[in-house]
Design brief:
Mean pLDDT of chain A: 96
Strand content of chain A: under 5%
CATH architecture of the largest domain in chain A: Orthogonal Bundle
Low-confidence stretches of chain A: none
Oligomer: homodimer
Number of domains of chain A: 2
Radius of gyration of chain A: 23 Å
Strand order of the largest sheet of chain A: 1-3-2
Order of helices and strands of chain A: HHHHHHHHHEEEHHHHHHHHHHH
Shape of chain A: globular
Helix content of chain A: 55-70%
């Protein structure tokens, strides 16, 4: 028996290596495509991706591997803890791929090589029709994909939700969003009736890109980014990617008429990047590197962006540096003006620019649409109309055009349906983690030193180090000594914003 | 029989696709490694490259492919012209790989994933010892590689030379360099006794990088670079790379105290890029895309850099634009001053900064060293001393340190021995091509329009369109109606520089 396990393990080790090399190649292609590849290269690039994804499919479905994984799965109690967990995850993944015909797998991968580019063009040109055929085909292929995977326990959209956050389906998300609707929406309505008084003249100025870049570097220093293990670049839509702990990259997008945008997307992406960099490097040679799940990843980015990054303590040392780089723009502005600005609640159009409080409402719009799409209750043609209707309903705003409406996000162009809900869930994880961290650390005191070092260390020990070697719910429980409770999120938001808006609640 | 050929063709078509996907991946890895990858990622990257190069080795040596290529080779008269040529080239390549043990192939590929990084560090630190162990291992592995490939006709260094320029071995190169030694070296000695009189105050100024970048963009426009099919970036050592005709990239390096450096490396790399972009796009799905050979490629870069880029006609329209961007630096400078500066002959240390006339002498230093290394006449330990001795002999200069001596070039760190001679040969091809072009085009007249469009077109039709679908010597003969004659090069140089230096020769 031991001999059989050893043979299976050796087959699996080889698969790990090949799989890592594939991931590395995909990382590079994605990074290049989204940051600098020239417009006309995508047709040829699509041909190469077709070949590469065929190879990936074959790698993941080889009968030899399937058999080895089955053997290891059955004998997982004799494996070390990390490998045992990995085998469970890999088996679940392989069991799925094997049910999907290779042609469909390859068609989707190939389509995705150009779809984000088509979306980008459609967005710039404010032309939903341009993107519609691609989006339709993506959804058709996803539905076809789901049709192969249905089990009595897991069907349709739930399969996608579970892929992005293991254990979370419409049942759990409906519960979560219902809590938010019940407890948060009335509060948001109350906040919306009040206005913050402060000197906002600085928002009328232009902020040259090079100066913004200088300040972004100061933020990198504050969050202790290691330049030997990663880099910052520009792209249309900010994102973080990487390969292992020694190559972590993120992007920002500078808007000359909106200083806060790049600042908070930098802090956000640095949250993701810090997570990736602080995984135990020993996991770099396994398939258990990277974050535990999307929601856990988002919990880290939103923790740094909102809980840390919009706090008075964080800006106490950084605000003078901001004034130094932009003396003209901030001439008569004080720290309080700036803090009010970055914590101002406004029912607005763009998710990525939304404030912390209304953010989950943007997610609800997308969650409702995705559910309805995969339940065949609505069609792609109807999307702009439905989008605009839901934005009116949840946020009370009129959507003036598709560029600022249905076309604003890149995700659907990447077939990432079921992804958005993890953003709201991540914010809720973050609030629960924050509650726990406060018991161990004096966060205000730490931030006086212009460095998040001790906070990074705490997160490394409690969350980051595990990588994907445990399920997110396990890690959350280890870190906070409780299972997930959305109430922490609601309490955090109401406490923070009733203070800022001077509301009794 | 036809059936057998069809089966072989179908196997070959599949190989083409896989091979192109590999080339694509290698292109991306190389580009990323040389332009932005973070310092600490190379160890992990090496592991992935090991896996990828193992796959490449297996792809190129699969018994099924070897058999199919053999069948197609025997029946090549029944194939179309392009495939027939490609099969001859591919067979030569496969026949070689198959003789090399996989472990050696993979070890070299893996070593090369980090060696250029080690070299870069050694160069910055002026520390040859740091690079020596890597260089030693590269040469050992190359010698081992050559030991597998020796035939009665082709041995040692000649195998490498023939890889970089088919049909060229020490016999041909010795002849070529002997011509240069005999006819050029006495002329250079004469030139070295004279000095050019001009106002060179502009060389004492600083040239901010952003302004240099602006001017580099003007040069791209002049050479009609298509921004939808490529891009320009920065790197330590300027280079051109790409994948097919729709993704062509080059880099420059800006030196704030040397304006001419980035200008001429931009024109040089744009020559390479123009070649890649103008290959028949139909060849993008074959293995016959890209340039015909390294010397042919270099003929194009040097044609644009020296013959076009240092000519009075080229600068007539560009010089005012240069003055516009650098008004302070060029205040009292006229076109003639600038032309003298960019055509000034100086026996100097750095190959990439060398003038057109002394450039081939730098190549001779490297050629002599490579020949001696692979004939086991010298060792790696002796390299700095021998380098310095040869520089004194050919160029009359004292080398003050290894950074500006033996460590100056990236090539050997990439195992590219046998590559340098193609640089000199390319210059000679360029002179012969120029001689031919002048019969068809009025180059001075064309350059009045601030665009090389008609020159690009001529080269496209005569040289670029063929890609690698013909041998370089065939293309040269088609384009110039003669076989290669080094005399055109000697004549061109002596005519040009005796005029500039007012020498009767």
């Amino acid at each position: 028996m031991e001999e059989t396990i050893n043979i299976a393990l050796s087959i699996y080790k080889d698969y790990q290596k090949q799989n890592l090399a594939n991931k590395f190649v995909n990382f590079l292609i994605g990074w290049d495509s989204q940051t600098e590849a020239p417009n006309d290269c995508f047709e040829a690039r699509g041909r190469q991706i077709e070949v590469l994804s065929t190879a990936t499919y074959k790698l993941n479905t080889s009968p030899e591997l399937v058999k080895a994984v089955q053997t290891l799965y059955e004998n997982r109690t004799s494996l070390n803890e990390i490998t045992a967990h990995e085998i469970v995850v890999v088996k679940k993944n392989i069991d799925k791929i094997i049910k999907v015909p290779m042609e469909e797998f390859v068609e989707l991968s190939t389509l995705l090589a150009s779809s984000q580019n088509i979306w980008a063009k459609a967005k710039v040109e404010n032309n939903f029709e341009l993107f519609k055929p691609t989006l339709k085909r993506i959804i058709e292929l996803l539905k076809l994909y789901l049709s192969h995977l249905e089990t009595p326990k897991l069907k349709g959209y739930n399969i996608l939700l579970d892929e992005y956050e293991p254990g979370f389906t419409t049942k759990e998300y409906d519960e979560f969003f219902d809590t938010l609707k019940k407890e948060l929406v009335p509060f948001v309505k109350k906040v919306a009736t009040k206005a913050l008084q402060y000197n906002h003249s600085f928002t009328n100025f232009k902020y040259p890109k090079d100066d913004q870049k200088k300040f972004a570097k100061k933020i990198m220093d504050t969050l202790c980014f290691n330049h030997n293990k990663g880099l910052m670049k520009e792209s249309e839509h900010p994102f973080t990617t990487g390969f292992g702990t020694s190559d972590v990259r993120f992007t920002v997008h500078y808007h000359e008429d909106n200083l806060a945008s790049a600042i908070f997307s930098a802090i956000h992406e640095l949250g993701h990047a810090t997570y990736e960099m602080q995984v135990d490097p020993a996991l770099d040679v396994t398939l258990s590197g990277g974050g535990a799940s999307l929601a856990m990843h988002e919990s880290q980015s939103r923790f740094y962006e909102n809980i840390i990054g919009r706090s008075p303590a964080f800006w106490k040392s950084l605000f003078p540096k901001l004034k130094e780089i932009f003396p003209k723009q901030f001439k008569s502005i004080n720290l309080n003006d700036f803090l009010k600005h970055i914590n101002e609640v406004k029912c607005s159009l763009i998710r990525t620019e939304a404030d912390e409080l209304t953010y989950p409402l943007h997610i609800m719009v997308r969650y409702d649409i995705e559910k309805a799409l995969f339940n065949n209750e609505i069609t792609v043609d109807e999307l702009p109309v439905i989008w605009n209707k839901l934005m009116k309903e949840y946020l009370g705003v009129e959507v003036p055009n598709n560029k600022e409406g249905i076309l604003q996000d890149i995700h659907w162009a990447g077939a990432a349906f079921g992804y958005f809900p993890t953003y709201a869930l991540g914010s809720a994880y973050a609030a629960q983690i924050y509650h726990s961290m406060k018991k161990d650390l004096n966060i205000k005191e730490i931030l006086k030193s212009s460095s998040t070092k001790e906070i990074n260390e705490w997160l490394k020990e409690k969350i980051h180090c595990y990588g994907a070697a445990k399920y997110p719910q396990e890690i959350l429980k280890l870190a906070t000594k409780e299972k997930f409770k959305p109430q922490y999120y609601v309490t955090y938001l109401i406490k923070k914003y009733s203070k800022i808006y001077d509301i009794k609640w």
